[in-house]
Amino acid sequence: MNDRAEVPLRELNQQTSRVLARVAAGETVTITKDGVPIGDIVPRGTPTAPPAYPFRTDPMGDLDVPDLGGPVLDDDEIDATLQGMGEPGTGAAHD
Hints:
Blueprint: E1 4-8, H1 9-14, H2 16-24, E2 28-33, E3 36-41, H3 75-82
């Protein structure tokens, strides 16, 4: 049996049980939409490649932050200042 196949999204929608039975039998199924691969269904325990991100996730070097003349805060002071920000009921409403 071929261990890799392409299945159109429509077929997955109409015959989900059959497609999943193929996966359960050890086959990797690539789902396509208009002929373009959009995802894979792989048997459980199959090693997968790392995700391909559409944006950079690696460090891009030192961050050059301008000095705006404010106070110099250490990490604990920053954490204390930010504690609770963005939580409902803290007065930081976005109307």
